[in-house]
Design a protein that fits this description.
Helix content is about 10%, strand content about 50%. The chain is mostly beta strands and about 325 residues long.
Length: about 325
């Protein structure tokens, strides 16, 4: 049996020694006992610290295409519906977009229209009904169609709105009055009024943004189009069409020119006639300080400017009755 021994006369009779611990005939110094205890504790702690587990984690794509037509046959001027069967293996619903790609891109751009719509995909299996239409003047062709399915916010697609539901919770009105109207986003602005609405996205730097735009014949149609790198209602860029002046403009707005902006690049007045009640697809590629603009797939303007390095995207109008549709933002890699 071990006992503590001290030389103190008071405690010696009790077998206690403050200098060490007696084990049989041997006395072990207290400092050595402390070292032994600390070493033992350290060894024990080391055992648990270095015992690690490696667990592989995989986040799976929840939606897959199960079934689709092996072929489609139709005549010029005809619209063909078909189903795409998908499986959502997750327990939540997703908004998805079908992307259609013909191996003959020029034929697709000139003659083929696809259903450009988003779908609400619930958990489990369901059919998505879509369609393609071929223009009456289209020549005969044999081609291959690829259908891709993307979750909104996943992969390259970060934002899409066709306004079909009438739900505008993904938008913030900054100026003017905006509303959903027959599956489009509508604003009517007066002579000295701006209409600005931005998508509820984080500030972006490099991306492509596009929309369909129609000037109604009920207004002057001074300017309307895409707003990008929006900092606030006085600081941003635009790519706008003008029905009144039959041209297109890349503009920069700042406190010195909050209403009409500064024209960074423009088509000469009267050089690009803009008709009322006519659908135009406008697009801006924003990459670093370079902005390239397109109308119906044709490049019309480009400019370099570094006033605003990032910001929100959205839509703008001034002195115009205008409809927007199929607003899409795709980040650039």
């Amino acid at each position: 049996m071990a006992q503590v021994i001290r030389t103190d006369d008071h405690y010696s009779s009790m077998g206690i020694d403050l200098r060490g611990i007696s084990i049989g005939k041997h006395v072990i110094p207290l400092w050595l006992v402390a070292v032994i205890l600390i070493s033992g504790i350290g060894g024990t702690l080391g055992y648990y610290v270095w015992r690690t587990l490696t667990i592989q984690v995989e986040v799976k794509e929840p939606i897959e295409i199960l079934q689709f037509p092996s072929s489609l046959s139709l005549y010029p001027g005809e619209t063909k519906e078909f189903n795409v069967t998908v499986m959502n293996s997750a327990s939540v619903n997703y908004t998805v977009l079908l992307i259609y790609i013909l191996d003959n891109s020029s034929y697709q751009e000139e003659f083929v229209t696809f259903k450009d719509d988003t779908f609400n995909v619930m958990s489990g299996q369901q059919n998505l009904t879509t369609w393609l239409a071929v223009a009456p003047e289209a020549p005969a062709v044999n081609s291959t169609l690829t259908v891709e399915l993307r979750r909104v916010g996943a992969g390259l697609l970060s934002f899409f709105d066709n306004f079909n539901t009438g739900n505008l919770e993904n938008w913030t009105v900054r100026q003017g009055t905006w509303s959903a109207f027959n599956g489009q986003y509508y604003t009517s602005t007066g002579l000295v009024e701006n209409g600005i609405s931005t998508a509820n996205l984080e500030n972006l730097t490099n991306y492509t943004v596009q929309t369909d735009i129609v000037f109604k014949d009920t207004g002057t149609g001074f300017r309307a189009g895409i707003i990008f790198r929006y900092v606030d209602y006085q600081n941003y860029y635009t790519f706008e069409l003008s029905h009144e002046y039959s041209c297109a403009v890349i503009g920069k707005y700042d406190p010195s020119a909050p209403d009409y902006g500064t024209n960074l690049a423009w088509l000469i007045q009267g050089s690009y006639p803009i008709q009322t009640n006519t659908d135009y697809l406008i697009k801006v590629v924003v990459q670093n300080n370079n902005f390239t603009c397109f109308i119906n797939g044709q490049q019309v303007l480009s400019i370099t400017d570094s006033s605003y390095l990032s910001g929100k995207v959205g839509l703008r109008a001034r002195n115009a009755d205008v409809l927007f549709d199929n607003f899409r933002v795709t980040p650039l890699s």
